[in-house]
Amino acid sequence: MWFGIITIFPEMFSSIIKFGIINKAIKKTILQINFWNPRDYSKKKNRSVDDYPYGGGVGMIMNIEPIYLAIQAAKCFIKNKTKIIYLSPQGKKMNQKDILKLSLNRNLILVCGRYKGIDERLIKNCVDEEWSIGDYILSGGELPAMVLIDCLVRVIPGVLGKIQSAEEDSFSKNLLEHSQYTRPKKFLNYNVPDILLSGNHAKIKKWKLKHSLGKTWKKRPDLLKNITLTKEEKKLLLEYQNKYKKKI
Ligand code: 4H6
For the stretch 112-130, what's the b/e string if a residue is b when 16 or more beta carbons lie within 10 angstroms of its beta carbon? Predict the structure, then answer.
């Protein structure tokens, strides 16, 4: 997958490029990231890329031209079909389903706004999709762009290995993961649930599903409204709920 990033702060991205699975994916050439800085396309003496808003008001607005030219340069570089994405608080709030859909693109150009955002004419005429990472305000689109890249890279086949398919299973079911444990079996007086140490794979599978359902019911009941449970799943959740109610 290829990303062209339009940003006045390309250095911010070193935090994700240098570490973890993004770094690994770049080394494996599964992932390529290139930058275009609107300042390089500013025709003003001081390389400025912002100006006062028409109609007055506080703050500055990013000029259309430097961003337009930066996008053109990125398009010329990649040549192939590419979608232009704008990260903004006004975009559609993205979820894992949206990520899976976006991951079908080979190339994406991510436009990172600063100041109070970009001249609307650029968004209307040059942007294909506007996305938000959540209902809160950041000082720039760079962090949302990094969030999007991280989400996309980990669903590219061959980046995560085996873990991924398992993880996708639980997410495609729209459930939270069950609790996880590792060595030691006992720490202070805290124990690992007996079933997980039993070696009985059928029982363990049931336990995992039950606790996946139970966790979702306890922490994110809104997710349960979107799915229909099988008879077996209903039974397991009921068992979990009865045990939980006895404890409190
Ligand atoms: C575009 C337009 C995305 C980008 C305006 C971006 C939150 C998200 C930005 C702005 C972002 C998100 C600049 C408007 C600062 C408010 C950059 N914030 N803003 N939720 N900020 O995905 O002032």
Answer: bbbbebbbeebbeebbebb
Distance CA 154, CA 166 (A): 13
- Boundaries of domain holding 239: 168-247
- By most ligand atoms within 8 Å of CB, the mutation choice from 88, 95, 116 for ligand 1 is 88
The residue contributing the CA closest to ligand 1 atom 5 is: 117
pLDDT of res. 86: 99
**What is the 61 CA–ligand 1 centroid distance (Å)?**
12
Tokens of 23: 């770094």
104, 148 contact by CB (below 8 A):
no
Say how far apart CA 189 and CA 170 lie, in whole Å.
31
Same domain, 153 and 176: no
Q: pLDDT digit string (tens) for 136-147?
A: 999 999 999 999
The residue type of 200 is N
Q: Say how many domains are in the chain.
A: 2
Question: What pLDDT score was predicted for residue 36?
Answer: 99
Is 87 close to ligand 1, i.e. is its CB under 6 Å away? Answer: yes
Q: Is 113 in the pocket of ligand 1 (CB under 6 A)?
A: yes
- The whole-number pLDDT of residue 248 equals 80
What per-residue confidence (pLDDT) applies to 238? 98
Query: Can you list the residues of the chain whose pLDDT is less than 50?
Result: none
CATH of the domain at 236: 1.10.1270.20
pLDDT at 161: 80
pLDDT for residue 196:
98
Examine the domain organization and report whether 37 and 148 are in the same domain.
yes
Whether 158 and 172 map to the same domain: the answer is no
